[in-house]
Amino acid sequence: MRGLLFVVLVIATASGAEPLQVALRGQVEFAGRRVLLSDIAVITGEAAQIAALADVVVLELSGSAPHTLDVALIRPLIGKRLPNEPVTITGTCALTRARRKIEEAELVQAATAAVGADAEVSLLRCSGAVTVPNEGAEPALVVEPLDSAVAGDLPLRVRVVGVETELARALVVVRVVRFATVAVAANAIARDATITAADLRVERVKLSGTPYFTDVSAPVGQVARVAIAAGAPVPRSGITIVPEVKSQRQVTLVYRHAGFEVQATGTALADGRTGETIAVRRVDGRSVKALVIGPGQAQVNPD
Questions:
Q1: What is the pTM of this model?
Q2: What are phi and psi of 74, to 5 degrees?
Q3: What pLDDT digit, counting tens, does each position of 1-34 carry?
Q4: Backbone angles phi, psi at 8, to 5 degrees
Q5: CA-CA distance, 178 to 110, in Å (whole number)?
Q6: Which residues touch 17 (CB under 8 Å, ≥6 apart)?
Q7: Which positions ≥6 away from 263 have C-beta within 8 Å?
Q8: Which residues are registered as beta bridge partners of 142?
Q9: How far apart are the first and last CA of the chain?
């Protein structure tokens, strides 16, 4: 019997075959999502065996919780890849997820870039740096405004998005000052005055949330509803279109029927633009409703 054992040992030694062994590392801090056997163990044996086991997937990480990897977990995985190979597995591995800290400066930079280059942006506050699982790839910083305003004190949510899921959130509040080239009053414009081209010039101003005219020709021919100081931007809400019919002015009343047209005069009791219905006082003192159809004209019986 001893002679037979000696012969087997001699044959094994002569063949030079190295036994397959997998030694689990005691502690591993892992950066990534897919944990391979080669990440947590030292594999020794024939080159073909090592290559076959190196890419065996041990875990797919989805959170930051630690894991304990032992022989009972590893043996079935190796058996699927090399079902007929004897293998010695030793040790226990304490696996922890590597972490990545996203500094406050990174969050603020992302929020500022999302506001746009045509604005002055200053930081008011930030909820602070966040620490997330290191998935082996840089997470994306997705900025979402929490207010519909485009200027003023704006809150922005910064989402830290990983390979598949959101990893963390932060809040950044910035003060945004925007500028635009708009129409301003070249001289003082009185209330109820009709605006001319000479009344306007262009200037780059800080926006305050009030809508202004970026086209300097747009207010020309319209009427100022409020007094506008020299050098002040012309607000859209501060002007109105010149009405085709003005209150207390004479208006031509048009009556059409069966191909005939009769006209009479009356007095408009309100301003009116084309398409609007106003009250008109006839010469006999009665008031009628009429549709404004053009400058100084209103139709009594619109089709």
A1: 0.55
A2: -80, -35
A3: 344 333 333 344 444 568 999 999 999 999 988 9
A4: -60, -45
A5: 18
A6: 46
A7: 252, 253, 254, 255
A8: 159
A9: 122
